[in-house]
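From the pipeline queue, job 12 of 40. The input is one protein chain; the requested action is below.

Action: predict structure.
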Amino acid sequence: MQKGTEKDITRKNNISTNHVNRILDNIFKDKLIKNNCSLPEALDVDEFQTTKVTKSKMVFIIVNQVHINIFDINNSRLSKDIESYFNLYSKKREIKSNLLP
């Protein structure tokens, strides 16, 4: 995944800045926990600056490294908000097995 500005995204995808903002707004509005309340097996985190009204000027993005897609965006990168976000998920890790009982 490459880093880029909003303008880079618009140029690369031949779409307007407004279209990019609408997509990001839809992601921000989606408050449901994804993937049956479990985190991806492998995740990547980053932060980026936003021009929208959020708790902080930077937001926290989580990427599912297995499927190489955005898992979620948290509207704050503050430690207490990130901790609250991850506390929504169970600390128990499900172990999947292909073995029959």
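Job complete. The CA atoms of residues 6 and 17 lie 7 Å apart.
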